[in-house]
Amino acid sequence: SGQSAPTTDYDGNTRPQGSRWDSGAYEYVATITCSYSLSASSASYSPSGGTGSVNVTSASGCSWTASSNASWITITAGSSGSGSGSVNYSVAANTSTSSRTGTLTIAGQTFTVTESGAVIPSPSGGADVVAGVYAPSTGSSSVYFYTLSGNSIQGTTSSWRVSPFSLSYAPDGSLLYINLTSGMTDIYPVTNGLAGSTLFATLPSPLGIDDNGPVISSDGLYIARPMDSADSGAGVQIFQKSGSSYLPLSTVTYGPYASFSASFDPYANHLAVALNGSGSTPPVTPIIFKRNGSTFSRLTGQPNVPFQDTYPYEHSLVAFSPDGAYLYATDEGSDATGNNFRIYTVKGDTFTWLSGQPNVQPANPGPIAVSPTNTYIAISNTYSHPYLLIYKRSGNTFTLLPSPATPPNSQVTALTFTPDGQYLVVAESQYPFILAYQINATTDTFTALPKPALLPPAAFESLSSVKVASK
Predict the structure, then answer these.
(1) What is the pLDDT of residue 267?
(2) 3-state secondary structure at position 164
(3) What is d(CA 388, CA 411) in angstroms, rounded to the nearest whole number?
(4) pTM for this prediction
């Protein structure tokens, strides 16, 4: 029952209606109505992912297809079939701390897959955490967190942040300051090196001008934001922290020059600022500001011998040593004397260039990192191999060390020593984008750790590190 007779026979001849079965030259053809059902409508997975299977039930001769609507869910078998069958799929590991949901379309039905967010174990035993942010030319960027302990490095991401550009931990590890591409700075509380999702405070954009990297004094009370804009409003915006409030102080200015870099000495008595060329006039850089109460005023004549740039677009960077005894400054390579890496001793308000140091000058130096004991100074050699240069200090003598056995194979975009001095973490512009070195201070060797399972898709623009106390 339920079958209907055709109006023509196999040869196309008109078939008399009213009869249900063939006689003679007439044939019977049945009409099939197809329906489909799935053995389940959803499945859930842990952050490690896995595999699964869904059964399709349908009548013989009923065809169907299956497709994935999420890049992290792959159909491994059964992308099409007829009648009853099965669809096999795999779910990739989720390295983000956020859960995610994707779907498969199977025989016109929706099958939902949910995967939990990654949970990185709370670092203990004195582990180090390094945070990094990359800024792609299009789309949103992400913050990555890496935990270093022994000879291993593990990573995870926090995908809830919107368009971060650069970041810095507060020196005590309690807060993470994240500069956004809008120019604002979002501040998040930190537990065991990992930032939570609850906003602590937001610093406004400095006159609508994007800035490059929050710089925080060692007591956490002063936050400086260099402005990446070469116009009449260029300067460094400074905030003073009081509890959960941030009081804006007067912006320090220095003419029509942008800045990518600034650094406080350990007591926030001085603020060094590195200037970039305006495009018409090379800057005199670095410049020094002295704090008196909550006011920062420029120290004229300091340092005693600044860079003598010959290129009007030049970039320079600065970093105080952790003890405040030295100021390190780099110029990308156009100093008239060829001294592109300058080291200044600091005594009171006097900054004196150590002529003849270091023993080997870099060609095109960039970002600077200083170890906690001021024993090692690592800098980027921007445009030429070796891309990473590491100097060792002994008194006022600075000597270039041999390159690590596994050096970066491309431009170093950011670098940081961990607070315990056990590791140097380097971001480079090409794969694998991040390198972590374990430091042997006895032999002055830097040994590369195995690459972490989680690698960023592009170079980090900014790195910052924090120490997690032993439990």
Answers:
(1) 81
(2) strand
(3) 8
(4) 0.73
